[in-house]
Structures are given as structure tokens and as C-alpha cells.
Amino acid sequence: MSFLDEVPWNESGLIAVVTQDHKSGRVLTVAWMNREALQQTVETRQAVYWSRSRKKLWRKGEESGHVQKVLEVRLDCDADAVLLRVEQAGGIACHTGRESCFFRKLENGRWMTVDPVLKDPSLIYRK
Amino acid sequence: MSFLDEVPWNESGLIAVVTQDHKSGRVLTVAWMNREALQQTVETRQAVYWSRSRKKLWRKGEESGHVQKVLEVRLDCDADAVLLRVEQAGGIACHTGRESCFFRKLENGRWMTVDPVLKDPSLIYRK
């Protein structure tokens, strides 16, 4: 039996994935994988997600160059989630040019942007 | 407008929540919140989730004593998730008596349990 068979895929065939920077410990993103995405992630050692909006495999960094080298893959006890520990190329995981997608913090009842933009997104996503 | 109105609740009125220990940096759990759970979490500064299986509010630690003191609440850019940074009472977040629910690691194609049980669950959940 493959390790893929032990993953509790939801009714849409997906599992939530938390990705953490192995060095800073920052939680970078929450995304989704289907079976193929997890298989390719393990085989290539680079994070591959399932884009729910685009309905296709999403090789993280394919446009931005901000690939995630996967150092560790973990599974939780029952909440149906995978954890990746990664080396984040460029130190930028978010499409806004920030280290982490969790750049808004609740302060006195308001979501405040507290993390800096490290690189202008227009320079990341040149077409 | 309340900060609660800015949360992109899904079609079930829920949002995924990643909880991280502020000291060890370990990702402890992935769970869910509805509007009331997030409101109570912010008001009480202790993590309150929505139990999808029991369909009720779940004050983390109400049985085990392993409450989570909430130091920081963050929201991500678009993946519809909340991040809590917490102080984990007892250093145990998982019902199996381990620090984190992510105690299984993929090694050579198999999910291996790599983290120790810190306290016997039968001693945690005395009835």
C-alpha cells in the first residue's frame, strides 16, 4: 500500500497543506493538494499544490521562481492536514512579495498589515 | 465593521485555523472556527474552535486542561486561513499526548511516528 492511500482525502479528493519555513519557523501558506500533487511533491522534492481556483496542478514558483524545496512531509492525527517544512527560494512565499501569506495581524479589533513587502510583485511576475 | 466581517468564511461558515506554538515554532494543530469561535477566541484570549464532528464549539483544553493561550491572531492573503500563535499548556496539543498532531513523518515512502508521547492519554482524559 502506498503512503498516498493512508491520506484521508476529503470528498473533493483534497487535503489541506500547511507549509512552514524550516529556518524562520514562519507559517508561509495554507494550500491544498490532491493525490497527484502529493505524489509529485514527494518525487520531485518541490512543493506542488492543487489550485482550487484554476483547477489544475500548481508547481509553486513556476512563474515567480519562488519554489519550495521540501525537506520534510508530515501528516496529522485526524484533522486531515499535511505539513511541509521547506526551504523557501527568495525568502518569499506570498504573491504580494512578502515572506508569508499571514501578514495581517489582529490588533485592537483590526487586521493590520505588519510585514514588509520584500519585492515588488510587478518585478516578480513579469510577463 | 467588525474584523469578523472581513474573514472569508466558507460556504459552511467556517475557516481553517493553523495553531503554532510561539516558543518551539511547532505547528500543533489544524482545526476550524466559525464566527462565534473566533469571537470567543479573541475575547477570552484562549483558543475556541468549531468541532465539525460534534457540531459544537470546542473550548480547547476543556477536558484535558491543555488550553491554548492566544498571543497572536493572523489572517492570510487569500487562502482562507487563520494563524494562531499560542502558549500551549502542558506542552501537549494532541489527544494522543504528543506535543503536536503532526507526529507522523514520511520516511522512505512510509508514515513513521517520530514524536514521543509525553503523557498517557488515559491520564489526560480521566472521566
Give keywords.
homodimer; 127 residues; mainly beta; two-stranded antiparallel ribbon; 11% helix
Topology of this protein?
The structure is a homodimer of 127-residue chains.
Chain A: E1 15-21, E2 27-33, H1 35-44, E3 48-51, E4 56-59, E5 68-75, E6 81-88, E7 104-107, E8 110-113, H2 121-124
Parallel strand pairs in A: 1-6
Antiparallel strand pairs in A: 1-2, 3-4, 5-6, 7-8
Average pLDDT level of chain A: 95
Which term fits the overall shape of chain A? globular
Structural class assignment of chain A: mainly beta
- What is the ordering of alpha helices and beta strands of chain A? EEHEEEEEEH
Question: What is the helix fraction of residues of chain A, given as a range?
Answer: 10-25%
Main β-sheet, spatial strand arrangement of chain A: 2-1-6-5
Low-confidence stretches of chain A: none
From the alpha-carbon coordinates, what is the Rg of chain A to the nearest angstrom? 15 Å
Strand content of chain A: 35-45%
Cα distance spanning the termini of chain A: 43 Å
Q: Main β-sheet of chain A: number of strands, strand sense, barrel status?
A: 4 strands, mixed
